[in-house]
Write a structure and sequence with these properties.
Helix 4 packs across helix 8 (166-181). Helix content is 39%, strand content 15%. The relative contact order is 0.17. Strand 5 (142-146) and strand 6 form a beta hairpin. A 6-stranded mixed sheet has the order 1-3-2-4-6-5, with helices on both faces. It has helices spanning 23-26, 37-43, 50-54, 58-69, 95-113, 123-129, 157-160, 166-181, and strands at residues 18-19, 28-32, 77-81, 117-121, 142-146, 149-154. The chain has 190 residues and is α/β, with parallel strands linked by helices. It has one domain (18-181): Uracil-DNA glycosylase-like domain (Uracil-DNA Glycosylase, subunit E, 3-Layer(aba) Sandwich).
Length: 190
């Protein structure tokens, strides 16, 4: 689902996200920082779907592995971003631009979708949803509450694939699976 937005000067390729066909049943919302400009500018026009374009990136492949570990696929989740557009020269959005998008679009998505659980990937979803908690750190893995919805805060999948130790990657998989499926690994329960 794409629509227009004129909040940020020069922004283009507004994209609301990927709503899987089973996401209304699972009610799982995944929120990343911003769209990968390579996906929206170069890759998406060559594929039939946003999911196929996302799977052409390392981050998308890592997310796919994590979802499979949890017994899910992109069909089972609503994947979106805090910031919805690409900026000229792939500029990183300013804090005010993130706040505009969060307040105008993401809050509405959350209200409309009514997720049972949210997975916040990276610093911007965390910082905007929980401004009173302090800045996000790359090692932060925590569960918080946003308007009565459990939110799992973790590193963005793009950072997780940097770990060369497969066991370290599996710890992220297990922790996410614990949150989504209420399982216990290494005495962790959510």
């Amino acid at each position: 689902m794409a629509k227009e937005c004129s909040l940020c000067k020069g922004a283009f390729n507004f994209h609301i996200g990927l709503k899987g066909k089973n996401s209304d049943n699972t009610k799982l919302l995944f929120i990343a920082n911003k769209p990968d400009s390579r996906v929206l500018e170069n890759v998406l026009p060559n594929f039939d779907s946003y999911e196929m374009a996302l799977l052409s990136t390392k981050t998308g492949k890592m997310m796919y592995k994590m979802l499979r570990y949890c017994g899910l696929s992109f069909d089972d989740i609503y994947w979106t971003n805090t910031f919805k557009c690409v900026l000229p020269n792939d500029r990183i959005p300013k804090r005010k631009e993130y706040e505009n998008c969060f307040n105008r679009h993401l809050k509405k998505q959350i209200n409309d979708f009514k997720p049972k659980k949210i997975v916040a990937l990276g610093e911007m979803p965390y910082n905007l949803m929980f401004p009173d908690k302090g800045n996000h750190t790359t090692s932060l893995v925590d569960t918080l509450d946003y308007r009565g919805i459990p939110v799992f805060i973790m590193s963005h999948p793009g950072k997780i694939w940097y770990y060369s130790d497969i066991r370290r990657q599996e710890e992220f998989y297990e922790t996410l699976d614990s949150f989504i499926n209420n399982k216990v690994y290494n005495s962790i329960i959510f």
